[in-house]
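dude i think i finally got it to work??
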Amino acid sequence: MLVAALLAAGPARAQVTEIFKCKSADGRWTYTNDRAEAERQKCEVVTRQVNVAPTPKPTPPPPPTASTRSARPGEFPKESASERMSARERQRDILEKELATEQAALGKAKEELAAQEAVRSGDERNYARVLERLQPYKDSVETHEKNVEALRRELNNLYR
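look at this
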């Protein structure tokens, strides 16, 4: 009757779980779900449970939209020259603002480095300690110089 119910349910995955009660040689009761071990020890079935899970139905793909439509000649999204120009202008404005910000940060980093180079404390008789103290300021200047250079390159590439 159980098999008929499973067949009538359509495509599904059935899993049978059995729990066996076994008596060991020293007289203690043990429980297992290993069928091979249960047959070897001549155990009795305590519980049998059938789990039936329906086969998941495939989900249909969403209907194509303008952005997900397959690429066919003549159906590519068109960008007008004015849209391209305005996008390029926005990009240029953003890069120029970033360049101005980075140049200001570079100026400030150079001022901080100059201020630290002018300071000499009494415990820095060893020149290695002076260099160690100045290194973070030099690194900051170098980072800002590289950023300015990269932004200038990016602006030059924009007009090619």
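The longest helix spans residues 81-118.
im so relieved honestly
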